[in-house]
Amino acid sequence: MLRKIGRDLPKIQRFASFAVEKPPRDASLVTSPDQLRPFAQRIWSDVREFINEECIPLEQKFLAQEFSEDRWKVLPEMDELKAKAKSAGLWNLFVPYNIDENMEYGRGLTNLEYAFMAEEMGRCLLGSEPFNCSPPDTGNMEVLIKYGTEDQKKQWLTPLLEGKIRSCFGMTEIAVASSDATNIESSIVSDGDDYVINGRKWWTSMSLHPNCELCIFMGKTDFNASRHLQQSMILVPMNTPGMKIIRPLTCYGNFDAPGGHAEVDFSDVRVPKENLLVGEGMGFAIAQGRLGPGRIHHCMRLIGNCERSIELMKERLRNRVAFGKKLSDQGVWKERVGLSRVETDQARLMTLLAAHKMDTVGAKVAAKEIAMIKIIAPNVAQKVVDRAIQAHGAGGMSSDFLSPHS
Amino acid sequence: MLRKIGRDLPKIQRFASFAVEKPPRDASLVTSPDQLRPFAQRIWSDVREFINEECIPLEQKFLAQEFSEDRWKVLPEMDELKAKAKSAGLWNLFVPYNIDENMEYGRGLTNLEYAFMAEEMGRCLLGSEPFNCSPPDTGNMEVLIKYGTEDQKKQWLTPLLEGKIRSCFGMTEIAVASSDATNIESSIVSDGDDYVINGRKWWTSMSLHPNCELCIFMGKTDFNASRHLQQSMILVPMNTPGMKIIRPLTCYGNFDAPGGHAEVDFSDVRVPKENLLVGEGMGFAIAQGRLGPGRIHHCMRLIGNCERSIELMKERLRNRVAFGKKLSDQGVWKERVGLSRVETDQARLMTLLAAHKMDTVGAKVAAKEIAMIKIIAPNVAQKVVDRAIQAHGAGGMSSDFLSPHS
Amino acid sequence: MLRKIGRDLPKIQRFASFAVEKPPRDASLVTSPDQLRPFAQRIWSDVREFINEECIPLEQKFLAQEFSEDRWKVLPEMDELKAKAKSAGLWNLFVPYNIDENMEYGRGLTNLEYAFMAEEMGRCLLGSEPFNCSPPDTGNMEVLIKYGTEDQKKQWLTPLLEGKIRSCFGMTEIAVASSDATNIESSIVSDGDDYVINGRKWWTSMSLHPNCELCIFMGKTDFNASRHLQQSMILVPMNTPGMKIIRPLTCYGNFDAPGGHAEVDFSDVRVPKENLLVGEGMGFAIAQGRLGPGRIHHCMRLIGNCERSIELMKERLRNRVAFGKKLSDQGVWKERVGLSRVETDQARLMTLLAAHKMDTVGAKVAAKEIAMIKIIAPNVAQKVVDRAIQAHGAGGMSSDFLSPHS
Amino acid sequence: MLRKIGRDLPKIQRFASFAVEKPPRDASLVTSPDQLRPFAQRIWSDVREFINEECIPLEQKFLAQEFSEDRWKVLPEMDELKAKAKSAGLWNLFVPYNIDENMEYGRGLTNLEYAFMAEEMGRCLLGSEPFNCSPPDTGNMEVLIKYGTEDQKKQWLTPLLEGKIRSCFGMTEIAVASSDATNIESSIVSDGDDYVINGRKWWTSMSLHPNCELCIFMGKTDFNASRHLQQSMILVPMNTPGMKIIRPLTCYGNFDAPGGHAEVDFSDVRVPKENLLVGEGMGFAIAQGRLGPGRIHHCMRLIGNCERSIELMKERLRNRVAFGKKLSDQGVWKERVGLSRVETDQARLMTLLAAHKMDTVGAKVAAKEIAMIKIIAPNVAQKVVDRAIQAHGAGGMSSDFLSPHS
């Protein structure tokens, strides 16, 4: 299979060499992958094939490890998956064309084009890691590409882009409503050539991953500045003294291993001044820019989640007989599948529009659509996934039906 | 105002002369009127201006007549409105480019382009009549354009296109579930040079209009043919002996005057054979083709309905104080306005996609999207309109808030 | 039939003579009419029979008049209906036992017992008028029973209890959010032996009824008193100079004739001081006590509305075939009927509990349940009625299916 | 505390000695625990106190163990909790009065009375196990009380009632839709003095518990009998050769340890004929009777779940500030708490009515209400719990907020 995916890499590269250009402000909306430019279309179908043939077959093993004592180890097959995806050119797809004009970092895809890839990645439990497109690394890499110094890039961006290390983002705090970033209470205090960091973070996703080596930390350098100029971002290596993982958090009883979500304490953590990003007081601005694309990725993965749920639901309904009739022939189930299709397709259109506006008129104008998909996609996913669970009876609560029973 | 709307009619014509061409199969989706080709954009903004300046100010008068004894008369201003719209080139906009290559009948708009106009028309209670775009005439004219003989066109299509007469469509029957057209029981029996028609129809919209002169009647010419070849369509002048309006039907107590919805009896109604459309047994096929565009028009008008409701809701919320605070500053109302925006924008995207597929890949492929918008748009409208009503308190049930109180 | 309903009136009276006693504070909840004490059970089944046999057969006629020019006249049969109900002892049932210890005014029913009657009345479009249980008379009579002087009672309560006149309640104002009664702006100014009234009311229900002779008017006697002591209530005969019906309001295009809802202007309307209820500043307190029972009545009538809708829906589903199968055998419709049953039964239980608490622990403690049913019952009715409409196809929008087609 | 709960055990016993009598068919509905007879009221308040003071403080420890490698062990404190509850008379409360006239097994509570206790048990994650009221033991004990021989009772019922062993119920099969019990495919074949059992079960809850010693197994003794006479139930000790736990199943990634839900294989499992319950072909009838009370228990526990969620949600809202205002002062959250109250109270009323009908008119008549609560309670719980999660932000996904942070 891999041969097939990688079959015409040189040709793809060639396509790419003239493919990157900003879509015009009034460009119309691509609503289906076969309307993408050939270069992106090829990547999309390669990603889809890779997911179906390489990743989905590993889901049961991935889950079994997650439910076992080995959960904090990386899936043994992950390194090979990443190597394959990389060699097939399916790597760092998330880096948007507009911060990567020479395709130094990624493949020069637009936000819209990558949205279609993200949907595919959301169809599989292994997610976007095989493609080095997994959060929070994606957001962290974007930040480093846009704001990192040459030294910062060399030390952190390069290994991240190569998939050699993982990273986390220390923003949410246990004591305050951190959805409003101005509430943040952690301090970053200048002391000679260093900054000294104190604070308590939680929901620091990926911090438990064995390869996690960097935390981009958000705190306040000036509690007296105006509200949006108090925050700064700083690079903190994971092994810095004073930094301590308190505990893994659970999501409905699951650890989301091996990345997990930790509560992390920072007590007099000292890092050199050159670790600061951009400058003091720039934290809020960096954070704002960081969240938009991530929301689109999350929502498209949720759409992929819905699509997979519909696939599984339909398969079950075709194969299950109750009260003398196939479930797929029963009106209530036709209605539920129909509603799932209606809701998923609507959510996709709006998410694509958000990505498209990001590409054509910029993040600021796209803010309205991004706010809308944050409401739409999770609510739709909750409904569609719930219907798929119900279609499987008690079995829907287990993970048996992800792939054909072995 | 009219001067402004009609200001550059010759220029529009000129644009138009080279504007009609089929969008390619893989065209991407126009999601906003300012992405339309300049010709269509101009018509759209003229339609919007016409609605806002000419039609909305008449709403209260229109409603007052509807609730009075004069309801079965045409609104006195309607003829003038139609004349203005016609002279401004805002006429027969619904005729799609693909059945009107030489722009003989309409303006050569695509289904997608007209969808944007239909949304605007849906913002006003007077609807699409001023633009001669009102159902069921629109569907009837489409049928005549596509299937009418020269004689049929001359007798019926011409006055319809000129807005001189109105027409109705006799399909739904009281005795059977007519959403399945194969259930229809009315008979069209050959007798010498004539056909003799018997049956009972209801929900025959527009049949009560003083200018209604034609009924396109659907019945069975052969009860023994295969299921989809039993039906035929035939032209029946409204004054044909044996045809009798039994009564107007009410919609939640309203007559929808002056067009109304009647129960109509056909007893030995005799029309000449040349009144048959296409041929015996072609009724089902004609009906199928007739419904798709109409559904898109209906759904886009519902979107317009939602938009108007949101406008009125927001105006009310800004101007009403309760419990010591403007309603617009209260969280519950922010949430309701937000949801209305989310639902309306999603419904619009899907309806535009249906119209776009109609243009690019044809009605057959678009069937899925058309089926989806039939579910989506009415449900969204019900929710959005209900919220707007609630925002107005008891007053929301009245028609006081359609326009500024005089 | 009437003979049967009135068959044992003396016996009922006898039951009644020892039946009125306050339910203990910890009484458990009667959830079904056959658990009522025999006296109330008998009245309930008589009311039900009266509705089914005397009232429902008149619905089509009632509606036809409502949609005609005769709408502002009383239904010709109404007087006879009222006479029959009165002679059968089905009269003024709403007067609660606790303000009517000697059964001077009504039948000594509890709020809970009357709730079951109100449900039955809600099953029919003619509503509660035949039983002299129709708002706003009910609330007005309650107010007069509790707070009226002997003279006020003689002049207004007696003819109201006899069903000879109707009355309205002037509270809601066009200019302010009147759901908060402290917002009211109308003035009641002392001037010698009179009060002089100025203000503009709307949604003054029943004010258009040909027999309406009294308005209980709420306004402010002291704009400087503390918030809840500014309001007073005063009796205003409908023919008082300066009082003017401005126009009937419409509810979704209907007039709710013959009672209607009017906008009413009061300009220097002068009434003698003895028309004031209780005393200056007591208006808010009276209003608070007035609304609780009315909300229970409204909600139970809505439950009755739901029950009737379910009856009609089930009848339709049993008799309609679509796509080769009876609708009642199709899963989607089974689900919709099931949900309607579930929602209606839950709403009834909560409304009964509200009435029961009113009886056992008083209006103040019952306030929470009364607030809940205000949310529940209208929302449930909206869903159940909508499903019944859908089950009837287009016909569901008309009023054809209220009773067997004639 | 325990002293207080057990303070007047003799007095309770005395109450009880004359308290057991069947409620009359037309009894009205107790809707609040303070309307219960004093005996039941006392038990209810003791259960509530026990939950609050003994069980809730152990929740965090219980969860920590569930998420650890020790999950398959019984919580160390459980034995002591059970001993305390037993000595306080809070033991085997589920046994309904009508199968326990001499209070040989339980406390002679009605289904309605126990419903209130079950609600309290549902407020705590430890559930009903401390009170020996935990499924599937409860259903199994009921079956043994009603249908067990003296020998069967001695061997299995006695240790179950004493809380010394646990049990499971082998009904659901992996291959067929087991919600229809007639689909069951496992076989129970007579062979000399034994029955030989073959089949594959899953979702066999409690089968992994270290104390689980008995499986009540459902299979078919006669595949050719009429549909409802094919099934039989038989007692299978857990250590019987041929019976094999295949694996624990997960519920959304959790094991529900230590009871768990297993897939269990039965290959030529041989048990003596006297292990059969009642007789061949009685399995379906026994199963039908077994499910009704269990559904009420489940639903009332879900109501308790909702109540706990509302408590936690309100506490959070009072203590959290966002965007400059306490969450509890923000309209959207007032609405969400209000809806949660409305939905929970309605669900409780209907569940109580189901229990009440079970007591007064029997399981057959109560079937409609039992069917309704199966729809209502889980749907309400899903909504209420979701709102409580949202109120806690990301923290809502964790288990941190179950009890005050330590």
TrEMBL record, chains A, B, C, D:
Transmembrane segments: none annotated. Residues 168-269 form the Acyl-CoA oxidase/dehydrogenase middle domain. InterPro entries: Acyl-CoA_dehydrogenase, Acyl-CoA_Oxase/DH_mid-dom, Acyl-CoA_Oxase/DH_mid-dom_sf, AcylCo_DH-like_C, AcylCo_DH/oxidase_C, AcylCoA_DH/ox_N, AcylCoA_DH/ox_N_sf, AcylCoA_DH/oxidase_NM_dom_sf. Residues 43-164 form the Acyl-CoA dehydrogenase/oxidase N-terminal domain. Residues 281-400 form the Acyl-CoA dehydrogenase/oxidase C-terminal domain. Its cofactor is FAD. Keywords: FAD, Flavoprotein, Oxidoreductase. The keyword Flavoprotein applies. Belongs to the acyl-CoA dehydrogenase family. This is Oidioi.mRNA.OKI2018_I69.PAR.g9552.t1.cds. The lineage of its organism: Eukaryota, Metazoa, Chordata, Tunicata, Appendicularia.
